[in-house]
Amino acid sequence: MSKKHRIFIVDDHPIMRQGLGQLINNEPDMELVGEASDARSGLTGVIESKPHLVIIDISLPGKNGLELIKDLKSRAEGTLMLVHSMHDESLYAERVLRAGARGYIMKHEGGKKVIDAIRRVLRGETFVSPEMSGKILEIFSGRRPSTTDPVEALSDRQFEIFQMIGQGKGTRAIAEGLNVSVKTIDAHRAHIKEKLGLKSGNELVRFAVRWVENQNLS
After folding, report:
1. What is the longest distance spanned by two Cα atoms in the chain?
2. Where is average pLDDT lowest: 49-63, 85-99, 166-180, 195-209?
3. pLDDT tens profile 167-191
4. What CATH number is attached to the domain comprising 55?
5. Which residues pair with 58 in a beta bridge?
6. Other CB atoms closer than 10 Å to residue 133's CB: what's the count?
7. What gap in Å lies between CA 47 and CA 214, rounded to an integer?
8. What CA–CA distance (Å, rounded) separates 179 from 37?
């Protein structure tokens, strides 16, 4: 048998890691070589195990998946990355690809689709849903029309916090979810308000809630 493709998983849900691991190990040409529940141990594990591909969740304690992608791009050069996330593809696919990943698949997709995404990324292709492929092509060919959405100016971490605000989460809950201090979240909120041209915390909450609701309707 030819050499197996080595896969590493970074996801903070043990059941998800177990399911993906079984899916991968059931393929004759793939093997799971490691797993991690957060970005820090994920980075260390990838550097040590040298996988061909890393499957990464966006929502991780501490550093999020987007930051891990950037770290891996600079410290594990040549390692392919596929994002496997519950977050809607339309919100994150562009950010993920710009950060250095080669694909994005949502967690509601079945095992066959996940394996297909893994194989395509391993072949050097970019994997997104058919609905996103046209938009992604426009973005990276420079033919994308200009946007007036100020949310796109937010950094990846700011965007994550903005979404959590729009989902009704308070500062302390966001801090606990991201494993950072309340002071850090307060600083991010201040920068978000500045970028969005908002004057108060209440304005930020209203704006974020409306934005999230509109995304859910689209």
Report:
1. 63
2. 85-99
3. 899 999 999 888 889 999 999 999 9
4. 3.40.50.2300
5. none
6. 13
7. 40
8. 13
Residues 164, 137 share a domain = no
What is the DSSP pairing of strand 5-10 with strand 80-85? unpaired
Residue 163 token pair: 């979404």
**Domain co-membership, 54 together with 25:** yes
Q: How many domains does the chain have?
A: 2
Which band of pLDDT confidence, cut at 50, 70 and 90, is reported for residue 136?
A: low
Verify that 10 and 118 share a domain, yes or no: yes
- Tell me the whole-structure pTM to 2 decimals: 0.79
Q: Is 140 helix (H, G, I), strand (E, B) or coil?
A: helix
Residues 135 and 210 placed together within one structural domain of the fold = no
Which residues of the chain form beta strands (DSSP E)? 5-10, 30-36, 53-56, 80-85, 103-106
Domain span holding position 208: 150-217
Closest CA to 83 of 98, 72, 91, 93: 93
The more confidently predicted of residues 96 and 56 is: 56
CA 125 remoteness from chain centre: 18
